[in-house]
Write a structure and sequence with these properties.
The chain is 53% helix and 14% strand. The protein contains eight helices and five strands, in the order E-H-E-H-H-E-H-H-E-H-H-E-H.
């Protein structure tokens, strides 16, 4: 049997630069001959991308927290079955922009939903798939939101108080699982942040 691949997820509040950093890591790994695939969540499947549009559309302002959480879970289920598990079974490195920790932080801590329910549904939707490593890029919410002054989506448009709860949630999760969730403070320079991330990932690859 082929060796199982490595599952790396990136988390962060709005404007933290996690998407940029995750793509830079993929480029770095490919340059070194590592078999890597980049995914985003919700998305990266036809069904997931349609769900993403619904979730981020500001016109869907009356969406309930329950509907929001379940839609994220639905997109996640499709992504795991269609992309993540097959790639890991082939021995690939999977880098995913967001995963279950996002639901814990945004819907659990941010919206006050039952964390036990989120964890239970999360395990079901993800078929028990757990990241080997999670990079959480930490940034004060106000600074991050200042980079989203125009064209904010439905989630970005929420209050600063909400985003503060999300950040606190991420930091709480990192304290609960310090071995898996590694907190990386956003540096002033993109390259400096990326260097810290590369050092963490290289240790996982040894």
């Amino acid at each position: 049997m082929a060796k199982r691949g490595l599952f790396i997820t990136f988390e962060g509040s709005e404007g933290s630069g996690k998407s940029t950093q995750s793509k830079l890591l993929c480029r770095y790994l490919r340059q070194r001959g590592q078999p890597v695939i980049f995914l985003r969540e919700p998305g990266s499947t036809p069904i997931g991308e349609k769900i993403r549009k619904i979730l981020l559309d500001k016109q869907n302002g009356r969406m309930t927290p329950e509907a929001e959480m379940l839609l994220y879970m639905a997109a996640r289920s499709q992504l795991v079955a269609q992309m993540i598990q097959p790639a890991l079974n082939k021995g690939l490195i999977v880098v995913c922009d967001r995963f279950l920790d996002s639901t814990r932080a945004y819907q659990g801590f941010g919206l006050g939903m039952d964390m036990r329910l989120i964890n239970s549904l999360g395990a079901f939707a993800a078929r028990g798939t757990i990241p080997d490593l999670t990079i959480y890029i930490d940034l004060e919410p106000k600074k991050g939101l200042n980079t989203r002054l125009r064209d904010k989506d439905r989630i970005e448009s929420r209050s600063l108080a909400y985003h503060v709860k999300v950040r606190r949630g991420y930091l709480a999760l990192a304290k609960q699982e310090p071995k898996r969730i590694r907190v990386v403070k956003q540096q002033k320079d993109i390259a400096a942040t990326q260097e810290i991330i590369r050092e963490i990932v290289q240790k996982e690859l040894r």
